[in-house]
Design goal:
The complex is a heterodimer of chains A (347) and B (337).
Chain A: E1 2-5, H1 6-20, E2 24-27, H2 44-48, E3 53-54, H3 60-71, E4 76-81, H4 84-87, H5 91-104, E5 114-119, H6 134-138, E6 144-146, H7 151-163, E7 168-173, E8 180-183, E9 196-199, E10 204-208, H8 212-227, E11 231-235, E12 238-240, H9 244-254, E13 257-264, H10 269-280, E14 290-294, H11 303-309, H12 313-324
Parallel strand pairs in A: 2-3, 2-4, 4-5, 5-7, 6-7, 10-11, 10-13, 13-14
Antiparallel strand pairs in A: 1-8, 6-12, 9-11
Chain B: H1 9-18, H2 21-45, H3 61-69, E1 76-80, H4 84-90, H5 94-101, E2 125-129, H6 135-148, E3 155-160, H7 167-178, E4 183-189, E5 192-193, E6 196-197, H8 206-211, E7 216-220, H9 225-242, E8 246-251, H10 277-281, H11 284-294, H12 299-322
Parallel strand pairs in B: 1-2, 1-3, 3-4, 4-8, 7-8
Antiparallel strand pairs in B: 5-6
Classes of the chains: A alpha/beta (347), B alpha/beta (337).
Chain lengths: 347, 337
């Protein structure tokens, strides 16, 4: 097994799938430029030609519908967005067309589409280049929503997404592209709908999405060192379909559940998990499910407010302490991740 | 015959030499079927056996029949919520049509699509949508797939004048011309978006504005389906030869209310029926029937064609009414592949 970065894992997957299946093609704004979507599409146009890898006009609405027309006619488009926020311009197609196309045809059409989008915090990216939106997409029946966290996830889940016969939205946090990890070579798939236990533990469960796994790992390390408490971290990896069983088994074991979601809390994925865990683990829960997510505001630009907007390891630590009745640890001298101090992996 | 003053005889003779009687009979059958199939809906709608909002095609039959007649079976069409005529132009399955409207398991989509999202992918009517303009970019992707797969077929997408007010329409025109995709845009312009007149909505001319994108544009307000057939045939040839997308801007008069089975001239938003006497005088069904007579087809033969269609409509409606509704378990089927 080779150690590669998240961006290399995505690039390798696109190349492998395009080699395997001539119906696969890649398009979107900026996919052929010198930056290549954080490096994830570099070299693909050279290898496969402009017919199978091309940029488009700044027409997200039309280019979203375009994928559907291609997919129902036997192609397998991979549409890429530099920021998830631009995907919203295609929302009519996602919510009115992608989602219902199979159903409204009485099962005659299928829409194998992958939409990749970059999510999350950057450097002063503010309110329109930094969202996540997975809760919104997962709300709509007919769509699947995937958030790969590790390089291995990136390869396994993107491969599965491309081979899936449904629209699959793949959301990639921009701070994850640099992360290194071991990734199986050759054909490698991870089923959509299978959670990953990122860290084993017995005393409290943290359900974390995307970048929040990095924050949760840091928090778990600090909590273990300061309090001797073992935190279990479960990464659902796919928001829909959801692996309820892995989550339920963990909470039944620990009796405590924190949902650290990389999205707004209100009406968000964290609410879905809280409701599901409360229903299925009511007897085992020693404290009510707690939730962490974005502040209920647009994302501000200035760093101190931005720090308050995004959930962090510190908040997870405090939440664990609060739920378990522990004294607050002294966190002075602890180093946490930031734009300037990025997590490099491996997980 | 009153239509003699409208049908240019020289023109007709010229075309008669060029085309043939079979073509005109075929067109008449299509137009007659579209008209009668919807009159049947008008007839039974009040009994509430079709619990689906219907946007009827009365008045636009010549456009759909003419365009579709010029397409091959491999050419695809994409439509709108006013999609009955398109279905009937492409599919011979009347039972699945009425089954769908009645919400029965025999429906083309087992009753899930209803009238507004009706389609028949197996006959090349791939999709329709009740959100104005939403199938336009989908047709663009279909045209891309046709080119990508090096197939020789084209894609025709039907939409109303109101759809040209949506941004995605212009986005699609740009991409279609930029990538030289085999697509035919068919704008069915009835001058109305629900109850709003075009003068209150558009500060541009559809042919002028679209032409500026590099499309080849043809405008007409004929109700002669053969003429529309000829225009389309030429457009399809050009698209295949030149890789330039074409747009047909075809006017018609919507006979009925936006949604529903009744006339609504009394509502006052678009004048009285008499104001549209010119359109009714060249009604597509009357026009084509008169044309058949001019071509020497006798009344008995026309009657025979009509009776056959009437019978098929009656039988299909009865079968749909007698068919079962889908089982409850059908609700969760076909959400995902």
């Amino acid at each position: 097994m080779k150690t590669i970065t998240y961006r290399e894992a995505i690039n390798q997957t696109l190349v492998q799938e395009m080699e395997r299946d001539p119906a696969v093609f890649v398009y979107g704004l900026d996919v052929t430029d010198h930056k290549g979507i954080f490096g994830s599409t570099l070299g693909i146009e050279d290898k496969f030609g402009a017919e199978r890898c091309f940029i488009t006009p700044l027409s997200e609405d039309a280019m979203t519908g375009f994928a559907l027309g291609a997919a129902i006619n036997g192609l397998r488009p991979v549409h890429i967005h530099q920021r998830v926020d631009f995907m919203i311009l295609g929302m009519n197609q996602f919510s009115n067309m992608y989602s219902s196309c199979r159903y409204m045809s009485g099962g005659k059409l299928k829409a194998p589409i992958v939409v990749r989008a970059v999510i999350g915090r950057g450097w002063g990216q503010s309110c329109q280049h930094s969202k996540s939106m997975h809760s919104v997409f997962a709300h709509i029946p007919g769509l699947k929503v995937v958030l790969p966290t590790t390089p291995r996830d990136a390869k396994g889940l993107l491969t599965t997404a491309i081979r899936d016969d449904n629209p699959v939205i793949v959301l990639e946090h921009r701070w994850l592209y640099d992360i290194e990890g071991e990734v199986p070579e050759g054909d490698y798939v991870i089923p959509i709908g299978k959670a990953n236990i990122v860290r084993g533990g017995s005393e409290i469960t943290v359900i974390a999405t995307s970048w929040m796994n990095v924050e949760a790992l840091k928090a778990a390390e600090v909590v273990q060192r300061k309090h001797g408490v073992e935190v279990e971290i479960v990464d659902p990896r796919t928001v829909y379909p959801l692996d309820e069983e892995t989550i339920v088994a963990s909470v039944k074991k620990t009796g405590h559940c924190i949902v650290a979601d990389y999205d707004w809390v209100f009406c968000g994925f964290s609410a879905e998990i809280a409701a599901m865990v409360s229903e299925r683990c009511f007897k085992e829960l020693k404290t009510p499910v707690s939730r962490l997510g974005f502040a209920h505001t647009p994302c501000p630009t200035t760093r101190p407010l931005e720090n308050k907007f995004y959930p962090s390891a510190v908040e997870i630590i405090r939440m664990v302490e609060n739920k378990l009745g522990l004294e607050l640890a002294d966190l002075r001298g602890e180093e946490f991740y930031s734009y300037e101090n990025k997590f490099k992996g491996p997980f | 015959m009153f239509l003699k003053s409208i049908i240019n005889e020289d023109d007709c003779k010229k075309r008669t030499a060029m085309t043939n009687i079979e073509l005109n009979k075929e067109l008449y059958k299509k137009i007659y079927l579209m008209r009668k199939a919807e009159e049947k809906i008008q007839e039974v709608y009040y009994t509430d056996v079709m619990k689906t909002p219907v946007h009827l095609s009365l008045g636009e039959e010549a456009i759909v029949a003419g365009v579709c007649q010029a397409l091959s079976v491999d050419d695809q069409v994409y439509g709108t919520c006013r999609g009955h005529a398109l279905y009937l132009a492409r599919s011979k399955n009347l039972g699945a049509f009425y089954g769908e409207l009645c919400g029965k398991v025999t429906g083309v989509a087992k009753g899930k699509a209803g009238s507004m999202h009706i389609s028949c992918p197996e006959s090349g009517f791939v999709a329709s949508s009740a959100i104005v303009s939403s199938t336009i970019p989908v047709a663009l992707g279909a045209a891309f797939a046709a080119k990508y797969k090096k197939s020789n077929h084209i894609v025709a997408v039907f939409f109303g004048d109101g759809a040209t007010e949506e941004g995605v329409f212009w986005e699609t025109l740009n991409m279609a011309c930029l990538k030289k995709l085999p697509i035919l845009f068919v704008c069915e312009d009835n001058g109305m978006a629900i109850h709003a007149q075009i003068k209150d909505r558009q500060n541009y001319s559809i042919p002028e504005a679209t032409r500026s994108f590099g499309l080849s544009v043809h405008s007409d307000d004929t109700t002669d389906s053969e003429r529309i057939y000829s225009i389309t045939e030429q457009a399809v040839q050009d698209i295949k030869k030149t890789d330039v997308p074409h747009l047909l801007h075809l006017k018609y008069h919507r006979y009925l209310e936006h949604v529903g089975v009744n006339e609504d001239y009394s509502a006052g938003y678009r004048g009285q029926k008499d104001d549209y006497a010119d359109w009714y005088a060249r009604d597509p069904v009357l026009f084509q029937r008169e044309k058949l007579k001019l071509l020497g087809i006798i009344g008995d033969e026309i009657k025979l064609m009509e009776t056959e269609i009437d019978q098929a409509i009656n039988e299909s409606t009865k079968l749909a009414l007698d068919a079962p509704f889908p089982a409850d378990s059908e609700l969760f089927k076909d959400v995902y592949a």
